[in-house]
Design goal:
The structure holds 2 protein chains of 2 kinds.
Chain A (H helix, E strand, L loop, with lengths): L3 E5 L9 H10 L8 E10 L5 E9 L7 H5 L5 H5 L5 E5 H11 L4 E3 L2
Antiparallel strand pairs in A: 1-4, 1-5, 2-3
Chain B lengths: L4 E4 L2 E8 L10 E8 L2 E7 L12 H4 L1 H5 L9 E2 L11 E2 L2 H19 L4 E5 L9 H8 L5 E3 L8 H10 L6 E2 L19 E5 L3 H4 L8 H9 L2 E5 L5 H4 L3 E3 L6 H14 L5 H7 E2 L1 H8 L4 H8 L3 H13 L3 E5 L1 H4 L4 H14 L9 E2 L9 H11 L5 H4 L9 H6 L5 H10 L7 E5 L12 H8 L4 E6 L4 H6 L2 E4 L8 E4 L8 E5 L11 H12 L1 H4 L5 H7 L8 H7 L1 E3 L6 H4 L17 E2 L3 H5 L19 H6 L2 E5 L15 H4 L6 E4 L1 H6 L7 E6 L2 E9 L7 E4 L44 E7 L3
Parallel strand pairs in B: 7-8, 7-16, 10-11, 10-14, 11-12, 13-22, 16-17, 17-18, 23-27, 24-26
Antiparallel strand pairs in B: 1-2, 2-3, 3-4, 5-6, 5-18, 9-15, 19-20, 20-21, 23-28, 24-27, 25-26, 25-28
Helix pairs in contact in B: 3-22, 4-16, 4-22, 5-15, 9-12, 9-13, 9-15, 12-13
The chains are: A alpha+beta, B alpha/beta.
Chain lengths: 111, 750
């Protein structure tokens, strides 16, 4: 089992879909598959009037955290191309530290 | 820094900056193009690009699907004039295509004069740089045409800037001109940004790297206000969203100036030294207290005051102004207000404020074209004066070297002042849903032309309906070129677009211009052996060889701040601004010279509840259009599978209450009908838009449908521009109703 993970600051994931297409290019997937998929939650107005609207870039079972790229010293394709630079790669421990530092609206995925 | 070209495991990797095609504005995002056996096998973001740092948008990432798409046109084609509208294209050689263009153009010139040739451009693609050159210097015609009613994209903002102060295009400072970016010792991040009628994440407008907004927000905690009729995702991350009634923005901006001047939140040193007309402006905006604007705009008075104070007291504040400034007949007054807000708060061209560009005329090639044509005798003054629309639209045509778009449609329809006879569509899908108002009228009028040429990458409605010769354009990966953000008006860097592969017989915009130019005016164009020679002599202005730029990939301009102090805004290099008084003219002498008010004023949108109450009873919704998506650029990319999957259909945003009243559910096809025309899109029911406003997408056609007449790839099905009126512009001729029309919406009954 890998001790690596993806950290996502979903406060600022802009839902641009770059990760999806970068991942498909890397894994050679067709249109019916995703190695990472952007999930949209909202937009919806909360009882206090504030807006709830989050995107979540969610890795799937096909994600191998770009083992091949990482072995060559490159970043995973989704991390490199993320326009908002909200996806990061590291050990589970490193990612947990980032999550702790951020404190809210962040997640770690160990696919 | 990595070499610009490396060999790894049998692959050549070329570092480059992408521009177009496929379309985008000149942002010049960094890419690494992987080539194997002469074919692109992968496109990646370039982690060493100092602005984009490896990030790449879906359009960039889907590049292979575009470049090697089976429907892409990669050889020249011709078609008999009587077969227009039919899929009877035949492949031909470049020689044959060029022969046809030369023969027909020379015949048209002999019979009707060079002025009867129209060269169309648009979109923000690289072709934008060259269409005026093609008109003026290749054909000797004064009539380059950006066909959007009221020149309502970028032109109005540039004109307001040019009239009031000169100095390129004001842009948010995201340290884009410095190689060390945010670490540059002179840099300070904006504390507060107003995004006015602009959603930069999706639009990357004119060279602004949109996601830098997120970068600054995360890194520096920059506060943001979005002025937008819609709550966008970015809006939900903003400190304020002013959900303005479409087209009323000038009232809002005047009210903010009312607060800023009334509460004396201004920089008196800057005003005393560099501005003219402050007292007059202060007096004028007294007419628009926040309470009045709140009523006009349908927003909260307190919010106007709060945002005005937050912006004016930020050190510094910055403004990103968007397309909504242009697509408004009252827009040049809005531009005036926003420039005043940048100036009087002391936030103009200071670190973290709204920065200006050093304009080097040699780099702004679309401005230099008529001068070249006149100097080389390709056009004489009499010919230049035949430019269509100079009489009706003098403010526009004195500043912008094209014909006036609305006057061109009039000429095509009426023959006044004369009938045009030939069209050259330089990557411009004129009858599509992305540029002209009333495209159905342009379509009928352009059918009468004797001869039409199109340069593009895919067959599209304009090419299929109207054209006789199709010249295939090379994508950014297939040619050498230079990219300057803001077309050079406010450049962050010189960027190299480095050729990695050849596809079919495609040629770049410059190569096409050279080829046709050598046929029409070899005495001028013969001096350039190829595109590299042309780029070195012109874009690079002799300062840099092509190889130097190619290898550097990006060369930041490293321009200093406060250019007005340093004499960098004026041609004579004296301090001050490039206005008649050499001040920032808050009361503009050039606005007055061209018959407009020197000071900003508010005017209701031409159609709406106040201006046309009777009509509004039948068309009771305000229609705003054209918000961008991540997966298309205007009418491009509809045939790219992984992009179309993300947004498969044209969508109309409609509020749940309004939808319920009309019996409309999510995904229903609905008619959107204005007094001028109708089309259908699918309802997207969302509370992010107010109940009395709907938003429709632009740029829709259906490449998968029958391309022949009358269907033309479904060009008329969802074409929102058919609902737009022709020639409804402001006093100086700018602005249109693309963002402030009226309509009714009802379910499509099968």
């Amino acid at each position: 089992m890998s001790d690596k993970a993806l950290y996502l600051d979903y406060e600022y994931c802009s839902g641009c879909h770059s990760c999806e297409i970068a991942c498909r290019n890397e894994l050679g997937l067709g249109l019916d598959q995703w190695g990472i998929k952007v999930i949209e939650e909202g937009p919806r107005q909360l009882p206090d009037g504030a807006w709830h609207w989050n995107y979540l870039a969610l890795p799937t079972e096909l994600c191998d955290l770009c083992e091949g790229r990482v072995a060559k010293g490159e970043l995973p394709a989704c991390v490199l191309h993320c326009q908002a630079k909200v996806l990061e790669y590291g050990t589970i421990e490193e990612c947990a530290a980032k999550l702790a530092a951020k404190g809210s609206k962040a997640a770690i995925f160990a696919p | 820094m990595a070499e610009w070209k490396t060999e790894v495991d049998g692959e050549t990797i070329v570092r480059s900056c992408c521009w177009s095609p496929p379309g985008c504005h000149p942002v010049g995002c960094g890419v690494r193009l992987h080539v194997r056996d002469g074919k692109l096998v992968k496109i990646e973001g370039d982690p060493e690009h100092y602005v984009t740092k490896g990030a790449l948008c879906p359009r960039g990432l889907a590049g292979l699907e575009y470049i090697y798409h089976p429907d892409r046109i990669i050889y020249p084609m011709k078609r008999a004039k009587e077969d227009r509208g039919k899929d009877k294209w035949e492949r031909c050689t470049w020689e044959e295509a060029l022969d046809l263009i030369e023969t027909n153009a020379k015949a048209v010139i002999a019979e009707h004069g060079a002025e009867s040739i129209l060269v169309f451009g648009g979109t923000g693609r690289e072709a934008n740089y060259y269409y005026s050159l093609i008109a003026h210097v290749v054909f000797g015609s004064p009539n380059s045409v950006y066909a959007q009613s009221g020149w309502s994209c970028y032109g109005p903002r540039c004109t307001s800037t040019g009239f009031m102060m000169g100095g390129g295009y004001p842009e948010i400072d995201y340290a884009q001109k410095f190689a060390d970016r945010y670490d540059h010792p002179d840099y300070k991040a904006p504390e507060y940004i107003i995004l006015w009628g602009k959603e930069p994440l999706k639009s990357n407008p004119d060279g602004f790297w949109g996601h830098s907004i997120i970068e600054m927000k995360r890194r520096f905690g920059t506060k943001i206000c979005s002025v937008d009729p819609r709550i966008t995702w970015l809006g939900t991350r903003c400190d304020d969203v002013i959900q303005v009634r479409p087209g009323t923005d000038t009232a809002l901006a005047m009210a903010m100036l009312n607060v800023i001047t009334g509460e004396d939140l201004v920089d008196h040193d800057f005003i005393d030294k560099w501005c003219a007309g402050y007292e007059e402006l202060k007096e004028r905006v007294k007419e628009m207290p926040p309470s009045k604007a709140a009523e006009i705009c349908g927003v909260d008075e307190e919010q106007i005051i709060r945002v005005a104070r937050a912006y004016a007291t930020a050190r510094p504040g910055s403004i990103g102004w968007g397309l909504a400034v242009d697509q408004n007949p009252n827009g040049v007054q809005l531009g005036q207000c926003l420039i005043a807000m940048m100036g009087i708060t002391g936030c103009l061209d200071v670190p973290g404020g709204t920065i200006l560009g050093v304009v080097d005329p040699a780099q702004v090639q679309m401005d230099a074209s008529q001068g070249i044509a006149l100097r080389y005798g390709i056009m004489d003054e009499a010919m230049w004066n035949k430019r269509i629309g100079t009489d009706t639209f003098p403010a526009m045509t004195s500043f912008i070297p094209t014909a006036a778009p609305d006057a061109v449609l009039d000429a095509l329809e009426t023959g006044i002042p004369y009938f045009p006879h030939m069209g050259f569509f330089s990557s411009s899908n004129v009858i599509g849903a992305a540029i002209t108002a009333a495209p159905q009228r342009w379509y009928e009028a352009l059918k009468k032309m004797d001869f039409n040429v199109v340069t593009d990458t895919f067959m599209n409605p304009t090419a299929m309906a109207l054209c006789d010769v199709f010249l295939p354009v090379a994508s950014y990966a297939e040619h050498n070129a230079m990219v300057l953000t803001h077309y050079g008006f406010n450049a962050s860097f010189f960027g190299a677009v480095n050729k990695a592969v050849q596809v079919g017989e495609c040629k770049s915009d410059v190569e096409i211009m050279l080829e046709v130019g050598k046929r029409m005016h070899p005495e001028f164009w013969g001096q350039y052996e190829d595109d590299t020679a042309y780029n070195e002599a012109n874009g690079l202005n002799g300062k840099l060889t092509w190889n130097e730029l190619a290898q550097a990939v990006t060369i930041p301009t490293e321009e200093p701040y406060r250019k007005y102090e340093l004499g960098l805004l004026r041609a004579d290099r004296e301090p001050g601004f490039a206005s008649p008084s050499h001040k920032l003219e808050l009361a503009s002498s050039l606005y007055a010279y061209f018959g407009d008010d020197p000071l900003p004023y508010y005017k209701e949108p031409p159609y709406g509840p106040i201006s046309t109450p009777d009509l509004f009873e039948d068309y009771p919704l305000v229609l705003t259009t054209g918000a961008r998506t991540y997966v298309s650029f205007h009418s491009e990319h509809r045939q790219i599978p992984s992009l179309r999957q993300v947004v498969p259909d044209p969508l109309l945003d409609i509020h749940p209450t309004t939808a319920a009243n009309l019996g409309i559910g999510e995904g229903d096809w609905v008619w959107i009908e204005s007094p001028f025309g109708k089309c259908k899109q699918r309802a997207h029911v969302t509370a992010t838009i107010k109940p009395d406003v709907v938003h429709a997408m632009h740029g829709w056609w259906f490449p998968e449908e029958d391309g022949e007449e009358p269907n033309l790839y479904g060009n008329w099905k969802s074409n929102i521009n058919v609902t737009m009126p022709h020639k409804v512009n402001g006093k100086m001729g700018f602005g249109d109703c693309f963002k402030n029309n009226i309509c009714k919406v009802y379910k499509v009954e099968e």
